[in-house]
Amino acid sequence: MKKFLIVFLMFVLNVSVSYAAGRSNFDRTIDGVLYNINTIWEKGTLDIHVPVFTWHNRWTYDHEKAHKYNEKPWGFGVGKSYTVRDRYRHGLVAIAFKDSFNKLEPTFAYTWQYLFCKGSIVRPTLGVMTGVTFRDNYHWLPIPAALPMAGLDIGNFTINTTYIPYLGENNGDVFFAWLTWRF
Fold it and tell me: Measured between alpha carbons, how far apart are the two ends of the chain, in Å?
């Protein structure tokens, strides 16, 4: 529960700072996000997501515990994404996979990626995903998160990765990878 509160407080702090910067800035941010979500929904392509790999950082996990955790997060997800000027990709993702304890973990997120090497078939991506996940060991309470993303596009196929930060011994510090096909 302590970790959930830390993540939730970070989320509230982020919203508060944005709001304190000025009501008009906050309104513009919300309007921009709503515009992007609407554009994704109306003009976006269908995406299929398949989680394929999880790695628990062996420097911050007990050796015996790390080897007991599930590192094959098999699952499935769908989403929509919209690319702007062959340079930025916005997306909506709904995905469910097996977590470290082999329990179901549904996640819903908004993603933003910068696409390097404009016009190229193979190109790296860098971005952020923000959303909410639900876990059995947190009594299915919503857990908000904002995580970095890195990937590699190969045509309409992307290898995506993120890293869940260190949240204390045997918690967080997890590398997660999934594949995405855009239709």
Answer: 39
CA atoms of 127 and 89, how far apart (whole Å): 9
Set 56, 90, 153, 173: catalytic member: 56
Residue of 49, 81, 90, 100 with catalytic role: 100
Active site residue 99: yes
Of 83, 86, 135, 134, give the one whose Cα is nearest residue 111. 83
Q: Among this protein's residues, is 90 annotated catalytic?
A: no
pLDDT digits (tens, 9 = 90+) for 15-63: 555 555 555 566 677 777 788 888 899 999 999 999 999 998 888 887 7
Q: What value, to the nearest 5°, has the Cα angle with vertex 176 and ends 1 and 9?
A: 30
Residue type, 162: T
Query: Collapsing DSSP states into helix, strand and coil, what is residue 11?
Result: helix
pLDDT digits (tens, 9 = 90+) for 88-140: 999 999 999 999 999 999 999 999 999 999 889 999 999 999 999 999 988 99
56 is catalytic: yes
Distance, in Å, from the CA atom of 34 to the CA atom of 178, rounded to the nearest integer, reads 26
Q: H or E stretch including 113? A: strand 104-115
* Active-site residue, from 47, 99, 153, 173: 99
